[in-house]
Write a structure and sequence with these properties.
506 residues; alpha/beta; Cytidine Deaminase, domain 2; 3 domains; 6-stranded mixed beta sheet; 21 strands
């Protein structure tokens, strides 16, 4: 039996090579792998001695030779293939161990591997006769089967071949993404997308218990913040725990970035039902919970500051949260949660990761868009009414606008004194959204502000938020009836701010 070993990642290399040599396998290697074997005194033949051609072009050409690829690709069930090998004096290769340059970690032209993917794909294509290993985690599996049966089983060869093609597919996807990221093209979105995803965790279930669910991550891309999350107790996470947790964590840090203190967010069914900013994180949490205590039951809580014991005690006293995210939590807090809220999942989480393209599956493909960002800020917003907001109302407008943009359309959000007091979301018309927000506020919006994710097409929606107590309204503008809406605002004696950008969310 003959094995070709050429790996960039040397993890587990020496134990594998010693194991193969101990089983009488002839080893062939090149470059840095050959040097590593030689340093350990492991007998092997160099690729150059097999091909009769020296490495060249600074190592770019080593294995690209018929005596290597003929030995890998020969179908041993075909007499003509065996005859070709005999004529060309090529010995078959039965095992290929190869992993590729770490392009995802160190992207550059020199990190684009050519010979490695070629060997891997050749061996995977011919997996009826050749075993290919790209992951050090499979070294022991191969050694065990060779030791016990004298060969790698057909089932294992097929599994390893699939892993090999997945490996090269992810590698190519990372290269294409790098070209896109460094392109001078004016297109906001690339002409093609290449997704290579690795399953990293089974979930309790999908959206519903009868649906299987799992979390995947993009191979070759920077790790998302979920990779750094530490679960301190509770049951396994489900699909919706992660989906809602993502929404809560991102909004929490958007509010924190306003620079006015600690932020607390409570999300239910992907929509914020509570949010507040305060100089004290415990107070911010209590005010976020007070936004809508009924909806907070079973929700996702995200806090911008670490949790100490007093804050943990406040959380335990309130309605059960399914998931709790914070930058960290004390041991006393964790012990309390595990004693009093055994089903809650307390998660220590790093900062949210960078934005990414949004993909939503439709029949035959995907809808793709850039993630929604808040481009306009207070400095560029325009007051269009006779009345002007005061300083506290400006602060509330920023909070309301951010929360509204992260709420399902049609959306209306009412805020008073840095606390969300009413949310109306996911409605087919703006009047119903305003009515829901007013019902949730229950009089607490008096003197506060209202945010609308899109313009008011008629004054009925505006009247509804004013009737709820709002004295300032923020909205994108852009309606044919903007002048009528502004006149209605002046008539009602309120201030109105237009941002110039819409934030629908479906």
């Amino acid at each position: 039996m003959r094995a070709l070993i050429s790996v960039y990642d040397k993890e587990g290399l020496i134990p594998l090579a010693r194991g193969l040599a101990g089983l009488g396998v002839e080893l062939v290697s090149s470059g840095g792998t050959s040097a590593a074997l030689a340093a350990e005194g492991i007998a092997h033949a160099e690729v150059a001695s097999v091909t009769g051609a020296p490495e060249m072009l600074g190592g770019r050409v080593k294995t690209l030779h018929p005596k290597i690829h003929g030995g890998i690709l020969a179908d041993r069930s075909k007499a003509e293939h065996l005859a070709d090998l005999a004529r060309q004096e090529i010995e078959p290769i039965d095992l290929v161990v190869c992993n590729l340059y770490p392009f995802g970690r160190e992207p550059s032209i020199e990190m684009i591997d050519v010979g490695g993917p070629t060997m891997v794909r050749a061996a995977a294509k011919n997996h009826d006769h050749v075993a290919v290993v790209v992951d050090p985690a499979d070294y022991d599996v191969v050694l065990d089967e060779l030791s016990s049966a004298g060969a790698v089983s057909a089932a294992t060869r097929r599994r390893l071949a699939r892993a090999a093609f997945a490996h090269t597919a992810a590698y190519d996807a990372a290269i294409v993404s790098w070209f896109d990221a460094n392109s001078d093209a004016e297109d906001a979105l690339p002409p093609t997308l290449h997704l290579a995803l690795e399953r990293v965790g089974e979930l309790r279930y999908g959206e519903n218990p009868h649906q299987h669910g799992a979390r995947y991550r993009t191979l070759g891309a920077p790790a998302g913040f979920w990779e750094g999350v530490v679960q301190h107790g509770g049951r396994e996470l489900s699909y919706l725990n992660l989906f809602d947790g993502e929404a809560a964590w991102r909004l929490c840090h958007e509010l924190k970035a306003l620079g006015r203190g600690a932020a607390a967010v409570i999300v239910k069914h992907a929509n914020p039902c509570g949010a507040a900013i305060d100089g004290d994180i415990t107070e911010a949490y209590q005010r976020a919970f007070a936004s809508d205590p009924i909806s907070a039951f079973g929700g996702i809580v995200a806090l911008s500051e670490p949790i100490d014991l007093p804050l943990a005690e406040a959380i335990v006293k309130n309605a059960l949260a399914d998931v709790l995210l914070a930058p960290g939590m004390s041991e006393e807090a964790i012990e309390l949660f595990n004693a009093k809220r055994k089903n809650m999942r307390p998660l220590g989480a790093p900062l949210p990761s960078a934005e990414y393209l949004g993909l939503r599956q439709i029949s035959g493909g995907f809808l793709v868009q850039e993630q929604d960002r808040f481009l306009a800020r207070r400095e560029s917003w325009k007051v269009v009414t006779e009345r002007q907001p005061d300083e506290q109302q400006w602060s509330d407008l920023e909070l309301a606008w951010l929360v509204c943009g992260r709420t399902s359309s049609n959306a209306i959000v009412l805020v008073k004194d840095n606390q969300v007091v009413g949310v109306g979301c996911g409605q087919q018309n703006r009047v119903d959204a305003a009515g829901l927000a007013a019902t949730k506020a229950d009089g607490r919006a008096e003197g506060g502000v209202a945010a609308s994710d899109a313009f008011f097409p008629f004054r009925d929606g505006l009247d509804a938020v004013v009737d709820a107590g709002a004295t300032v309204v923020i909205q994108p503008g852009g309606s044919l009836r903007d002048d009528d809406i502004i006149a209605a605002a002046n008539e009602r004696g309120i201030a109105m701010v237009m941002t110039g950008e819409r934030h629908f969310r479906h």
